[in-house]
Amino acid sequence: MQHKPLADQTIVVTGASSGIGLATARRAAAQGARVVLAARSGAALDRIAADIVREGGQAVAVGADVGEREQVEEIAAKAVAEFGGVDTWVNVAGLTIYGPLGVVSQEDHERLMRTNFWGTVHGSLVAVGLMKTRGGALINVGSIASDLAFPFQGMYSASKHAVKGFTDALRMELRLDDAPISVTLVKPASIDTPLPRRARNYLDKEPMLPPPVYSADEVARAILHAAVRPQRDIVVGGAGKMFIAGKEFAPGAYDHLAGQIAALQKRTMAPRRPAGALHAPQLDDTGHVHGDQPFPVLRRSAYTRASLHPLATASAVVGLGLAAATLLRSARRS
Known about the structure:
Elements: E1 10-14, H1 19-30, E2 34-39, H2 42-54, E3 58-63, H3 69-83, E4 88-91, E5 97-98, H4 106-131, E6 136-141, H5 154-176, E7 181-188, E8 191-192, H6 195-198, E9 200-201, E10 206-207, E11 213-215, H7 216-228, E12 233-236, H8 238-249, H9 251-255, H10 258-264, E13 266-267, E14 297-298, H11 302-307, H12 310-333
Parallel strand pairs: 1-2, 1-4, 2-3, 4-6, 5-9, 6-7, 7-12, 8-11, 11-14
Antiparallel strand pairs: 10-13
Helix pairs in contact: 1-7, 3-4, 4-5, 8-12
């Protein structure tokens, strides 16, 4: 399946006020797409949409909480009213919590699932309703946590596992109906966004993402590739693919990396902000694509670029699989 060029598409992006969602919306508009931006922080979205229009693009903003089905339907109604329909729907909105599963409150657990999982479900089902006859692309942003688990991000990992299961089942049902809709799951590794700053934090330190950390624009590039030339799954970041492959090869050895992963999730020199944006927008982080990672950010992933071109994928996967096996054998010996 191949879809219309980006310049002929209307694209809905949830979680568009920062990070991957904002990078995707800006990149899509720069390539001529009509963009519908959605997030809880409506005022910030209005400014972002106005900036896109000033730069010659086409964009409208919709303040909405994707955890509420009725508000997601309002996003769809705005897209139809302004641009006549939707060609690609991208579910990006997501948050995380840092803390032991038994310490995090039930209210926080439920709010995270409401945004990460139910937000994706609502967006997907509303998008399918719009595109079932006219066709289009549905792109859900999961994570390498769709295939892996991370200590102190247990419910985040659970939500991304759930997104993967839902996305796979929906894809199969659409094929049974012969619906002209492609379904892609994008699984980023550590990405340079404000996500750690926006997290609900129960740890004694400010959280951070374990290196290597990749650019948010690399994820946006993969998302917009799938809007035109769909793929079933796209992992952004060769290191992420290596760990996924290694965990499948030797799951027990991956479990033994828990201590190292937990240590890499804590920053030693940063003020701790416990509340985050879990229950309400954190306005000082809206409008920002990038975070403040203490490590150098990789501007591109050779593995991901290769995986977007099928002839190069096989050799890239073989190389990463060998590297993962070597890494996990070393971890097992240690």
